[in-house]
Amino acid sequence: MTEVEMGKKSPATRLLRDSRAGSAGAMAALVTGLALDLTLAILLGAGRNTDALFVALRIPIGVAVFFPPTAIQVLVPAITKWFEVDDRETVNSKTSSVLVATMAFGSVLAVLGVALSPGLVRVMAPGLGPETHDLAASLSRIAFLMIPPAAMSQVLRAYRHAARRHGLASALQAVLGLTIVTVLLVAPGEVEVGLVVWAYLLGSGLQLLVALFLARSQGFRFRWQFRADSDVRALGGRSLRPLAASGIQLGTRIAEQMVASFLAPGSITILTYANRLISAIGGTLFFKPIVTAFLVPMSKLQALRDEKGVRALLRDGFRLLLFVSTSLALLVAIAAPPFVSGLFALGDLSADQAAILGIVVAVYSASLPTAGTQRILLAVTFARLDTSPYLRNTVYGALANLAFLAVFAALWEWPLKILIVPIAYGLAQIVNTWHAFHVAKRQVGTGVGYMDGMKRPFVAIAISGLTMILTLGFAQRVWSLSPLALIATGLATAGFGMATLYWSTQTFVPGGLRSFMPKEPADPPDRHRDAHSGMHTIPGPGG
To answer: What is the pLDDT of residues 14-63, one digit of tens each?
Structure first.
């Protein structure tokens, strides 16, 4: 039985299996990330020392967080094309050149960061005192050494994604979290922020080794070389815009941190935890694996100039991301506050700080639908290896974010001024999504049918939300406000909500959850194999 025949008989297409494998790997990364944040909260709490820690980690972690989109948006489509048109040796040679260039680029950033650390921490958090600035600068010098291994790991991760081995590639981030948690738990005596930074550095090194092992298992063989052939040079040029966009996003997060430095001690820590939680739940667990799974076949269809197939794939991806992100936003907004508050209250965070953290996470959740759908809309441009729309999208979002942040900082007179950060972020995501719609319309034209058949799914989501509200109200009347009771309340609310979502979707949506299963279009008939080389021949972007 051929693979095509198996795909026809199986209810789950290869694309869906790729999405599920990626999400399973991302779940491992999410669990370890949550364990890491909880360990830090229990051992360190939230105060000036932890604020200094996260100021020191802001740029190095920012590079580690913002480099993966570049790897996925540029490297995955490029390496996917290389797999289609080149032999394995050539693919390995080109990937090795990219890896060497990445190591050089990351090393330059690390050296500059170490040299400029004292001034950087004062710029990034001007509201902190001199002692906190000094502590942050000393930690920052160590943290910047993370950048080369973190960046190189993403290149190797992209190699495995391009080979459609998404599970372990998506789980790679778990190596970092597991290493840090292990170091902190086995360390003798009281844990200090200095040990945390060294643990991050060790985890980054181990993550690179695991990434190299995974790539080798997929056939990658590293060559100490840098051959700037046409494909590698083109890839370098296309990477500049996503890297610039990543720098802009990092700058926006730094601006948020600057505002938070003037708030109560621990505000930077609370915002960091909240942002990491919402990014892990949305981006890491669902959005990134789904979009990555769509990006590989979409890149092939773009290379084959199958516009009809691209539109169909975009429609399926948008409907899936809209359903997942809207359901997730409602789940987090209702169930997360008690769960997060109870979980982090088990550590050194005060009850008030833990409660504020839960509220901030709930406010951040409002941005999940726009954050999810804009990714699949922009995926069309990445499949075409056109990165300029993404840079413009980032610029528009950053300008909107900074504008909203400035207005709220000047005019906000309510309690919990910390909420201006997630609110400004959410409004900026709307601007990003509006622009992404226009980009997708220009790239693929009309007739996509984004919202076809979404009325009934929205009814199912609303029923789930009502069930969670009723469950939360009942639990708060019955149970106490102790941390364990809050955790149980959040879990019960989420459990009833997911069960109701499944039931209502199966009941009210024709085809139930299966209606959201993507159907990967078959290869067009003009795809052929070269009789002598045995390689697929696909016309490139230039014809």
So the answer is: 555 555 665 566 677 778 888 888 888 888 888 888 899 989 988 888 77
How far, in Å, CA of 267 to CA of 255, rounded?
14
What distance in Å separates the CA atoms of residue 132 and residue 526, rounded to the nearest whole number? 64
Query: Taking the C-alpha atoms of 342, 348, 352 and 358 in order, what is their torsion angle to the nearest 10 degrees?
Result: -40
Residue 38: closest CA among 352, 257, 258, 357: 357
Distance CA 102, CA 70 (A): 12
Closest listed residue to residue 39, CA positions, set 357, 365, 349, 494? 349
Does the pLDDT value for residue 383 go beyond 70?
yes
Are residues 348 and 400 in contact, defined by beta-carbon separation less than 8 angstroms? no
Report the DSSP beta bridge partners of residue 537.
528
pLDDT at res. 164: 67
Q: Residue 506: CB partners within 8 Å, gap ≥ 6?
A: 512, 513
Q: Rounded to an integer, what distance in angstroms lies between the CA atom of residue 241 and that of residue 74?
A: 10
More confident residue, 156 or 330: 330
Q: Among positive and negative, which fits the CA dihedral 482, 486, 488, 489?
A: positive
Rg of the chain on CA atoms, in Å: 23
Q: Is the four-CA dihedral 509, 512, 517, 522 of positive or negative sign?
A: negative
What is the DSSP track for 297-343?
HHHHHHHTT-HHHHHHHHHHHHHHHHHHHHHHHHHHHHHHHHHHHHH
